[in-house]
Write a structure and sequence with these properties.
Blueprint: H1 28-36, H2 70-77, E1 117-118, H3 127-134, H4 137-156, H5 173-185, H6 207-212, H7 215-224, H8 246-259, E2 260-261, E3 265-274, E4 283-284, E5 292-301, E6 306-311, H9 325-333, E7 342-346, H10 353-360, E8 364-369, H11 379-383, E9 391-395, E10 401-406, E11 410-415, H12 432-437
Parallel strand pairs: 3-7, 7-8
Antiparallel strand pairs: 1-2, 3-5, 4-5, 5-6, 8-11, 9-10, 10-11
Length: about 450
């Protein structure tokens, strides 16, 4: 496997700020108030070019994944004539190419043809044997090479003979494995500062860490850890904003494809990796454990195993003109998994009638919540006023079901696999975000003084 090396169009003539008018600079407290009281415009509004209105799709409870504004939006689309849709917005719910009926067609029956599970067996039955299936010697050697090269760069750019990097000794596969082990173990034992793991005071005494590596060696390895070679003098910087970590992302996706066959039921969702530094594509999502960070799209099993990741960088260079951003994300993560009768569960950030039809042509079912302002939604379902406990549904000719159910508020769903029916289920909280939160090992960027 190869390991590869501000909004435009603003009409400023209508700005309320006049010449000579004093402006108010917000304090830190005022900025925090804006973030915590829904006054912040989430950068997710950039993502979905299908929708005029966008909502956060990251609800922790999974119930009606759009936010509380969903009912307000209905008043924007419903005219003054009761349940009729406003004339100027009728195109939003146009049924062009979609004939809706009240009866299920019962025509979509795709047999799941893959054999889920491990494609290759580990060398033993211990946890480390399964870990070695993913973290191979090939990956460790790659990390060793890139780290040694970058350490030399740091040394050559150092201005002090007393810098720790001046005592650099090349690392190797065994030491890199020990370093990663200590880093992962820090996720199970939480300390306020990195140095606390090597303290000898009886309140902090953890002999395990200093037994396997000195503090100075660990910190210099952390400083020199590298995944992608820097451009040589005269070479242009890669345009890919993720070029520093792209080899690791590519490795993970490729290796997971080699060792594990996904099951029938898959979920596509987002996760946030904590990051509070400066970064042009840093995101803010209020419902996440880490509100600020780098956003990842992930294809996962229902029990949390991650099959494939895609990092949002704010660049759309690879998206064709015929694709929306959400379609691009789904197609990227599902690449190689179509035509096997799988079921994909997604929230309302991704789902639409148009996308459901496209995936049906790939023998892939779709089920999830749906935003009320998506194009091609059935107007009868969107405009219908319901009492608590009532529901309404419509089917396309290829059996895509759009259903609305009234609980505390309207819940709009779409499925190309299941007909309209109501059953009670037990809520499963074993989501990937929750499982990851048990073993955090995020650390502030560590830099040595030159």
């Amino acid at each position: 496997m190869d390991l590869p090396a501000g909004p435009s169009g603003v009409d400023r003539s209508r700005s309320p700020i006049k010449k000579g008018m004093k402006t108010h600079i917000l304090s830190d407290a005022e900025l925090l108030d804006i973030l915590e009281n829904d006054k912040w415009i989430s950068s997710e509004e950039e993502f979905d070019v299908e929708s005029e209105y966008n909502y956060s799709s990251d609800s922790d409870d999974g119930e009606n994944e759009g936010n509380d504004l969903q009912n307000i939006v209905m008043s924007d689309y419903v005219g003054s004539r009761g349940n009729e849709v406003g004339e100027d917005l009728s195109e939003m719910y146009s049924s062009t190419n979609f004939d809706w009926s009240t009866d299920s067609q019962n025509i979509n029956h795709f047999e799941y043809t893959a054999t889920p599970g491990l494609k290759c067996l580990p060398n033993g039955d211990q946890p480390i044997d399964y870990f070695n299936l993913l973290v191979t010697d090939e990956l460790l050697d790659f990390l060793v090479d890139e780290t040694n090269i970058y350490a030399i760069e740091i040394f050559l750019n150092s201005v002090s003979d007393k810098s720790r990097i001046s005592n650099w000794v090349n690392t190797n596969r065994s030491e890199m494995k020990t370093f990663l082990s200590l880093l992962f173990h820090m996720g199970t034992i939480k300390m306020p500062r990195l140095e606390d793991y090597w303290k000898t005071n009886k309140l902090f005494n953890l002999p395990f860490f200093r037994t396997y590596m000195s503090r100075n060696r660990f910190t210099i390895l952390l400083r020199a850890l590298h995944f992608s070679r820097n451009p040589a003098e005269g070479e242009s910087v890669p345009r890919n904003r993720l070029h520093k970590i792209q080899p690791i992302v590519n490795y993970f996706n490729s290796r997971m494809n080699e060792i594990f066959e996904p099951s029938k039921n898959l979920s596509l969702d987002e996760s946030m990796v904590l990051w509070r530094g400066r970064l042009v594509f840093r995101q803010y999502i209020k419902n996440k454990r880490h509100k600020f960070g780098v956003k990842m799209y992930m294809l996962t099993e229902s029990w949390g195993l991650i099959h494939k990741i895609m990092i949002y960088s704010g660049q759309g260079n690879d998206i064709s003109e015929s694709m929306t951003h959400t379609e691009f994300v789904v197609d990227n993560l599902m690449s190689g998994l179509y035509h096997k009768g799988r079921s994909l569960y997604m929230d309302n950030f991704y789902n639409s009638v148009k996308l459901s039809r496209k995936l049906l042509q790939q023998k892939t079912y779709v089920t999830g919540t749906l935003r009320s302002n998506r194009k091609h939604n059935p107007r009868e379902v969107i405009a219908q006023k319901l009492k608590k406990g009532e529901s309404i549904c419509r089917y396309t000719e290829d059996n895509i079901c759009v259903m609305k159910w009234k609980d505390k508020r309207d819940v709009l769903t779409i499925s190309s696999e299941f007909p309209h029916s109501m059953i009670e289920i037990e809520k499963n909280r074993n989501r990937q975000d929750q499982m990851t939160s048990y073993y955090p090992f995020e650390r502030k960027t560590y830099e040595t003084k030159h």
